[in-house]
Design brief:
The complex is a heterodimer. Chain A is globular and about 85 Å long. In chain A, 77% of the residues lie in helices and 0% in strands. By secondary structure, chain A is an all-alpha fold. The chains are: A mainly alpha, B mainly alpha.
Chain lengths: 335, 282
């Protein structure tokens, strides 16, 4: 009961100022989270650096042993003759300038060039898949919850269980078989600039497992929220069912979905390795897999660092969305 | 107490028909991977030159057909499943041992030890794990042992969190006080009093870890950085099949169906076990 006057004060003339206040704290929140992300990123860099130094054998161990002088020259050229700490410091300094070092196997490219080459493709793919997963998974989950135990619900739940057990590397070939080989609606694989149909199958393959999980989560949490007393109160005030669902139930029901967004992004990024390799897309994932196969340390390291940064950024976005949806967190921050 | 928990879980499972079916299917599959290759006519790396890429039932003795090198698909799938299951079991065991020990100690000690130990878990948790597994395979060479270690190295984190939570609650119980008064040391209390009481959630989570490990291993093998030919794993069999999609769809269908069946059964079993053992329902 005491909540009512407090809520009403928001509507009073000083509402604008409160809003401004909250904006400030949002900025502080973002800054704090960004600062908090730095140690994680440094740890990622340090760990991957250490691991690659642990490797038995160096990048110049070829089948034919190099003469010692040439080997020494090569190692000096790449700075590999210095102590590990110096190398790490130089690597960090390079990273701050966007320099990921040279690729050991793609001799004519730096890792930075390969990243710049692949990042737009991978980002577009990942963003498309996440948008599709949320834009399709949430409505489907709502639909299932509203027709609880009905036909649509059973269908959606069956789809969700199937979608979660089928990994991306099975989904992708299956989609190709149906839509490219049998129906011939879409190209099998490939990448031509300006041919959007190339991106349809990869994005759908990436999104399907996430759609399944998001739909299941939305359904479960909406069903739970609909039992809450404030929903009964909203209905008692005579609100249309539509308004009850969309304005009162859904924002609260979306909280678990938002907290799943971080793991979902991780799944999409890992899945993009499969999808890019399978469909032959020139993204970062394919470079990473190639680098792993070639044991190209600098390339793998650079890619992993970028992927980690992407994941951190996405988790930050998810946290912000969570704070925007959950008034309790907002209030905590304002205090 | 443990016996009672086990019996209760068994009763609940028996009432859950689908879970029983899953358990039976998994049992049969394990039996098939152990006995099957010995009973069939071909070895997993044996090339049948006269029947390459044969469809199921097309060539005598090749029940599910052959791959493009004339190797029997059923035998290879069983072998792949055997390797995938073995890695999954081993990696789950590794993560179980580390996770339970870590979580139980952190929860039991509380205070600063707990804070530091769980902080470490949080930090590892925030790393992109699949990518670190890839780095590890790059560094230590591709193969089953690397995969096992790499997956085990990250798999224990969730287990540690779950166990810690339970251990924190357990610590407040009288029988722990009684053990302390009785003069038992930390190691003994953990081993004899704390861990046995954690078995429920640990079993549930281990059941749910198995399919995760199978998926990660197949994912790496699909990309070519996991199990290497001529060894078969479900992942590289799916990759082979995906390459022959148009001419020989069964090469994809057989290992993919096997993989999904196993993952689904473990997931379902884990969910049912959770329902059966969940203390909130009791």
């Amino acid at each position: 009961m005491r909540l009512a006057p407090a809520a009403a004060t928001v509507l009073q003339p000083d509402g604008a100022m409160r809003y401004k206040c909250r904006r400030m704290t949002t900025l502080a929140f973002v800054l704090r989270r960004l600062l908090g992300a730095i140690p994680t990123l440094v740890l990622v860099i340090a760990l991957s650096f250490m691991l690659t130094r642990l490797a038995p054998g160096g990048p110049f161990d070829e089948e034919q042993a190099l003469p010692p002088e040439i080997r020494a020259n090569l190692e000096a050229a790449y700075g590999l003759d210095e102590p590990a700490v110096v190398q790490f410091a130089r690597y960090l300094r390079g990273l701050l300038h966007g320099d990921f070092g040279p690729s050991f196997k793609f001799r004519d490219f730096t890792v930075g060039e390969l990243i710049a080459d692949g990042l737009p493709v991978s980002l577009g793919l990942g963003a498309g898949a996440m948008l599709l997963a949320l834009g399709f998974g949430i409505p489907v989950g709502v639909l299932a919850a509203l027709s609880r135990r009905g036909l649509a619900d059973r269908f959606v739940m069956a789809f969700a269980v199937a979608g979660m057990s089928i990994p991306v590397f099975v989904v992708a070939p299956l989609l190709t078989l149906v839509f490219a080989l049998w129906l011939r609606w879409l190209p099998v694989a490939g990448w031509l600039p300006g041919r959007p149909s190339d991106t349809v199958l990869p994005i759908v393959a990436l999104a399907l497992p996430v759609i399944a999980f998001v739909a299941r989560l939305t359904r479960g949490s909406l069903l739970e929220v609909l039992r809450a007393p404030w929903i009964r109160a909203a209905r008692a005030r005579g609100l249309a069912e539509r308004a009850v669902i969309l304005r009162h139930a859904l924002p609260a029901a979306l909280l678990p979905v938002v907290s799943y967004a971080g793991p979902a992004a991780a799944a999409v990024l890992a899945g993009s390795l499969v999808v890019e390799t399978y469909f032959g897309l020139p993204g970062m994932g394919r470079h990473l897999v190639q680098g792993a196969l070639n044991r190209d340390y600098t390339l793998v390291m650079g890619m992993v660092i970028v992927y980690a940064a992407l994941m951190i950024a996405f988790n930050l976005l998810a946290d912000l969305a969570y704070a925007a949806l959950d008034p309790r967190i907002r209030r905590e921050r304002a205090q | 107490m443990t016996l009672g928990l086990g019996r209760e879980a068994l009763d609940a499972l028996r009432r859950d028909r689908t879970a029983v079916v899953c358990l039976v299917v998994l049992g049969l599959l394990v039996l098939a991977t152990l006995a099957g290759p010995a009973l069939l006519d071909y070895r997993e790396d044996e090339i049948d030159w006269s029947h390459m890429a044969a469809a199921p039932f097309e060539a005598p003795g090749h029940w599910l057909g052959t791959d493009r090198l004339g190797r029997d698909l059923l035998v290879r799938t069983l072998h792949g499943l055997r390797i995938s299951l073995a890695i999954a079991l081993a990696a789950t065991l590794v993560s179980l041992v580390i996770g339970v020990a870590w979580g139980a100690l952190a929860g039991f000690r509380r205070g600063r030890t707990d804070a530091w130990m769980m902080r470490f878990v949080d930090v590892l948790y925030s790393l992109p794990q699949v990518f670190f597994v890839i780095i590890l395979t790059v560094v230590f060479g591709r193969g089953s042992f690397t995969i096992l270690v790499a997956i085990g190295a990250f798999g224990w984190l969730t287990m540690a969190r779950i166990v810690r939570g339970q251990a924190l609650a357990l610590r407040e119980r009288e029988f722990i006080d009684a053990a302390i008064v009785g003069g038992a040391g930390t190691a003994r209390i953990l081993a004899r009093h704390v861990v046995p009481n954690l078995l429920g959630p640990v079993i549930v989570y281990a059941t749910l870890t198995l399919p995760q490990v199978i998926l990660v291993e197949s994912f790496l093998s699909f990309l070519g950085i996991g199990i290497q030919e001529p060894l078969a794993s479900l992942g590289n069999l799916v990759a082979d099949g995906a390459a022959e999609l148009e001419t020989a769809p069964w090469m994809l269908a057989v290992p993919a169906a096997c993989l999904m069946l196993v993952v689904f059964c473990f997931n379902f079993l884990g969910d049912s076990l959770r329902d059966a053992l969940d203390p909130r329902d009791r």
